[in-house]
Design brief:
With 614 residues, the chain is α+β, with helices and mostly antiparallel strands. It is built from 22 helices and eleven strands. The strands form four sheets. Strands 4-3-2-1-5 form a five-stranded antiparallel sheet. Strands 6-7 form a two-stranded antiparallel ribbon. The protein is globular and about 85 Å long.
């Protein structure tokens, strides 16, 4: 844990975010978790600054005296001085003194006049990091009355302190200032590296800590098996709990496990193909950026071609439906083996490669959340591969198998309208995720969470076997719907998808190029990190509009199953609980990261997911 450099109440010089100007501020608070100082400016404005953006007043005084003593004009005057003159310089005449003061005053006035222009450009073209999230984005924000401009314009009030700062930071380039800036940049890089090498332990334990994660390791597989067993019952009512358990020996079959391994390694082969572009992820704690090959959509096309070939040669895909429970058990066993392997190899990983959320020192907690952030075998990134490939593409394959099983079991020449809607809606969702694959690199799953049992089980078991619950339910419990009802459900899904995609695209475009003229209508609150928090558009409507779109789509996926049973709506209930948990997690993370700027954003956008409700 790095020691704090400045004490509470100390008067220092703080850099205004997005500029090179320093102002006199007073330290009011220091956050041990985010390592940010809360400072107060003379006009009452409070911001959270990094330690590298704060300097002591003595360093500024030293710079000022050094600059004046090494001025080229001063040196030339000393060399041309007559030997008969005093050694400590010469006096100016009264007219020269007046000219010097007038010139100095004119320079300050010119600087004061040009500073608002710079502020205007800072408000418009302030760089922002490309940090998009596909599922749970950190919100960007802004107000209608540009808060950033209002706050920065308050800094333009002429006073003695402003003139002193402007004298130190003339807008005219000088060699001496460039040299000092290079020295300061080197010092900043050194301080950043020193800070990043010190890794802290995970303090805030989620999911109920050690006891909660231990329970979840058993509860999550039991939930999956319970849902699948209930779908096979003639009356899948919650009152029929518990469902009849099959013999334990029937839950395992070596051939099924072999088919699952074949599927896993086939997707790994597609991942290794040299097709698709290679992009860099976000910087790690050591400053390094990992490279990722974006070819998930190509893998989906190749998988679709392989399934088409199997169907052409009349390969019996009904085998997956007949052994669905065994496939779920095989996937769960494989995810447990993979989790044990990941934890063992993480014990030898360097400190800077450990996950911020899985470095608590408690075995069970770190095993569940993931101890290592980006486990790799050569260039093969295990977490990134499992995030989108075997489970997400497998979800679509399972849905297709359920569609074929419905036709075979009920002797239908065409699948039911309900089954077509479920397959179409969820296919759109998966294709969207694979098409915008690069956006997953900025999600908390990649940047913050380690790869442990939670993600391994979620990617390989929960996603393919729980997300396909509606299709599996419709095979044994068909539900006929009319075309008007189907049209209404389709409109609902389209609304949810439009909110989900447009909100993510809006944020993505703003992160990539905030100065884009097409985004001129968006306004934002500046933060000490250099990023902007949007308070217009979708992100000014609610804090997590992408979550709102997710929930609307989840409801549309369940409605084709009818209202005879609550089981198909488990996914909606689960999704709401999941997103509320993620939202609370995002709130905590953003509050630590953005400080007072996040509090101002929450005041402007009070609703989190549901407008006027939550």
């Amino acid at each position: 844990m790095p020691n704090r450099k400045f004490a509470d109440g100390e008067v220092v010089m703080g850099r205004w975010p997005g500029s090179v100007l320093y102002y006199e501020v007073q330290v009011t608070h220091y956050d041990d978790v985010s390592h940010l100082y809360t400072v107060k400016y003379k006009d009452g404005t409070e911001l959270a600054l990094k330690e590298s953006d704060i300097r002591s007043q003595s360093s500024f005084k030293h710079r000022k005296s050094q600059s004046s003593s090494s001025s080229p004009s001063r040196k030339s005057r000393s060399r041309s001085r007559s030997p008969g003159r005093p050694a400590k310089g010469r006096r100016r005449s009264s007219s020269q003194s007046r000219e010097y003061k007038d010139d100095k005053k004119k320079t300050i006035q010119e600087t004061n006049l040009s500073l608002p222009v710079l502020v205007f450009f800072f408000c418009l073209f302030k760089p922002s990091e490309n940090n998009t999230r596909r599922y749970n984005g950190e919100p960007d924000s802004t107000e209608k009355n540009d808060t950033s401009c209002v706050i920065m314009e308050q800094k333009l009030k002429p006073d003695v302190e402003m003139e002193r700062v402007l004298e130190q930071y003339s807008l005219r380039p000088r060699k001496e200032e460039k040299k000092k800036e290079e020295i300061y940049s080197e010092k900043k890089v050194f301080e950043t590296k020193t800070f990043e090498k010190a890794s802290s332990k995970t303090k805030d334990l989620e999911f109920g800590g050690r006891i909660g994660t231990l329970i979840l390791i058993f509860f999550l597989p039991a939930t999956v098996f319970y849902l699948l067993l209930m779908c096979k019952q003639d009356d899948p009512s919650l009152l029929n709990f518990p469902p009849p358990l099959p013999p334990l020996e029937s839950l395992w079959e070596a051939r099924v496990f072999g088919v699952f391994l074949l599927w896993f390694f086939l997707q790994a082969l597609f991942y290794l193909l040299p097709i698709g572009k290679v992009v860099e992820g976000l910087p790690l704690s050591n400053g390094r950026k990992l490279q990722y090959r974006i070819n998930g959509f190509y893998a989906f096309i190749l998988t679709a071609a392989a399934i088409g070939i199997l169907l052409y040669f009349q390969f019996e895909l009904h085998y997956l439906y007949d052994h669905f429970m065994q496939f779920a058990v095989s996937a769960a066993a494989f995810s447990m083996i993979l989790s044990i392997f990941l934890y063992i190899r993480s014990l030898k990983a360097p400190e800077e490669e450990l996950a911020p959320s899985g470095n608590s020192g408690y075995f069970i907690y770190d095993f569940f959340t993931g101890h290592e952030l980006n486990p790799r075998i050569g260039s093969f990134d295990l977490k990134y591969f499992c995030e989108l490939r075997p489970g997400l593409i497998g979800w679509v394959v399972i849905n297709l198998v359920m569609l074929l099983a419905e036709m075979k079991i009920h002797n239908q020449s065409m699948p039911s309208l309900s089954m077509i809607l479920v397959n179409s809606f969820q296919l759109l969702y998966v294709v969207d995720a694979l098409w915008y694959e690069a956006t997953v690199l900025t999600t908390m799953d990649i940047t913050h969470d380690g790869f442990g049992f939670m993600l391994a089980f979620g990617d390989l078991v929960w996603v393919p076997f729980v997300y396909s619950l509606q299709a599996y339910y419709l095979v044994g419990h068909p539900n006929a719907i009319s075309w008007p009802i189907a049209a209404a459900i389709t409109v609902l899904n389209c609304i949810g998808y439009y909110i989900f995609r447009s909100a993510n695209s809006q944020k993505n475009n703003f992160r990539r190029n905030p100065s884009d003229p097409k985004l001129a209508y968006l306004k934002f609150i500046p933060t000490a990190t250099g990023k902007g928090l949007l308070v217009t558009g979708w992100w000014g409507f609610v804090r997590h509009p992408n979550y709102l779109g997710d929930i609307i789509m989840a409801l549309a996926w369940s409605l084709p199953c009818g209202f005879n049973n609550i089981l198909p709506y488990f996914y909606v209930i689960y999704f709401i609980c999941l997103l509320v948990h993620r939202e609370a997690r995002d709130e905590h993370h953003c509050k630590q990261k953005y400080g007072l700027a996040w509090e101002r954003y929450c005041q402007r956008v009070p609703y989190r997911i549901f407008p006027y409700i939550y």
